[in-house]
Structure formats: C-alpha cells, structure tokens
Amino acid sequence: MNNFSRLDLNLLVTLDTLLAERNVTRAAERLNLSQPSVSVQLAKLRELFDDPLLVPAQRGMRPTARADELREPLREALASLGRAVAPSQPFDPAKATTTWRVAAADYAESAILLPALAGLRAAAPNTRLAVVEAVPTRMARQLEQAEIDLFFHTSVGAPPGLHRRVLFHERYVLAGRAGHPRLKRRPTLAQFCALEHVVVSLSGGGFAGPTDEALAAQGLTRRVALSVPHFLFMMSVLASTDMVAMLPERLARGAPGLRMVEAPLEVPGYEMAMLWHERRHRDPGHRWLREQIARSL
Predict the structure, then answer these.
(1) Which segments of the chain are extended strands (E)?
(2) Which helix (H) or strand (E) covers residue 116, if one does?
(3) What are the beta bridge partners of residue 245?
(4) 176 near 259, Cβ under 8 Å?
(5) pLDDT tens, 61-75?
(6) Which residue in 49, 52, 60, 53 sits closest to 21, CA to CA?
(7) To 5 degrees, how large is the angle CA 26–CA 30–CA 34?
(8) Cα–Cα dist 1/143, whole Å
(9) In sequence order, what are the residues at sequence separation of 6 or more whose Cβ sits closer than 8 angstroms to the Cβ of residue 57?
(10) Is 123 helix (H, G, I), strand (E, B) or coil?
(11) pLDDT band at residue 86, thresholds of 50, 70 and 90?
C-alpha cells in the first residue's frame, strides 16, 4: 500500500474481521453488513495493499503471506485506537497513583493546600503532590505544557484563556506580635501610619502595596521599614519585633504569637483563584483534585 491518505478506517476493521473469520459471509454477520458490501470492501483492500490478502481454500479462505504479516500489527493498532477513543474511566482516588504538580506561593500553601492536605491523603493515599514555586510570568506556559496541573493566583493578573475557579475572597487585617503595645485596640489612622510596617514583595524589593494606594487616596503615607519576599519570614519578624503588617486574614487567623485587629482604613481585598489549562479540563482525576481542594476551604 503506497497511499495512506486513501485508507478508510472501516476497511481496516473489515480486514481484521476477515482475517479472523476467513469467510466473507461470517465476517459480514459480525460486522452487521451485507455479504456484497464486505466483498466490495475486500476488493478495495486488495487494491490498496496490492495483494490478494485472502484466497479461496478448501474450507473458506486462506490468508496470503502479506495478510499474515498484517494480522498482529493490525490487531494491536485497532486495539490502541479503541482505547484512545473510549470514554474516560471514572477516577478512583483509592486506587490512583497519580503525581500532581501545583504551583503556589507560601500564602497559597498555608491558606489553600494545608487545609486540603488531610483530605487528599485520606481519600487518595497512593497519590503524590509536588508543590513548586509559583512564578506568575511562567504560569501560562507551564499550564499549557502540562508542567504543572494547577496554579493558585489572584484573579487579578491571571492570564486570559485559562479556566479558573474562585476559591474565596480574602481581606486584610492589621497584625503584630501578641502583647504589642499599639495593638491592644484598633489604632487611629495617625497611629497606624506611625507604626513600622513590613510588606511582602513577591517581585522582590518593593516597599508599597494596596495599603499604600488606599493611604495615598487620602493624602497619607506609612512607615515601611522592611520588604521581604515570603510570608513565612514576615510572620517570624512580626512575632519577634514591634513591626506590624497588613496580612491576609486567613494567614493571620490563629497564627501563634500574633494578634490581629481591624485596620483604621479600608484596603480592598482580592479573589484567590485556582487556574488550569483546557487540556486538563475534562480529565477525571484532575476534576476530582479540583473539587477536593475547593470543598476543603
């Protein structure tokens, strides 16, 4: 056969059945076709392969040497194709051995993954979860190339074209060490601006954020004394100094050694979202993982 573009998949199914039955009538019955239709298809196959394929014998038909060569490769190809187009099997977390890769900053690790971890381990004990560094500039490429399964990020700034599910709306609270003399009650706006503040700068080295934008709208500024790249270090700084920070409430809530109070100004919060690519959207295991995470929050 020298013209693959002329090949009809139905002809290969017919050939596979003919090689199994070695009889046109029985093959027609298995294929639910008429005997003349199968004879026409056999004629096309002989033309395509430039070989008789099946020749008359004392009982039924006998495959030619070329047909014998085709038998196993054809059977394997059709079986592989059948598996490829078969409906996806239901995902069974108890039996799954999947390794999932998700990208999360340390805030998302604490606020999203930590609450979900116990449920994931209980329901799918043989799976593995790899948490990798969240780099927003790589997000779209990593998801498209299946380097990661999920990316946790604010809705603002998420690339277009990705599937997203908003997990919760986060708000900011003022936090400092337990026993901080200025946090026994809600400070005034002037007291708030006079405190030494710590900020997290994910891009590195920044000293301003949403709080500063809210203050600037009122013609005010605050004292930002320290900029750090991670919340984990910030929490340690807050617990051991008199510095304060505007923290996401889910991170501050229940943190040992910290006290949180309402800030004296309204700072807009943000939506935290789970993002994924279309290529994994309908995968049963991926869908289960997304639901499991969302239900845990």
Answers:
(1) 54-56, 61-63, 99-103, 128-132, 150-154, 163-170, 172-177, 196-200, 223-228, 245-248, 258-261, 270-276
(2) helix 114-123
(3) 175
(4) yes
(5) 899 999 899 989 988
(6) 60
(7) 70
(8) 41
(9) 22
(10) helix
(11) low
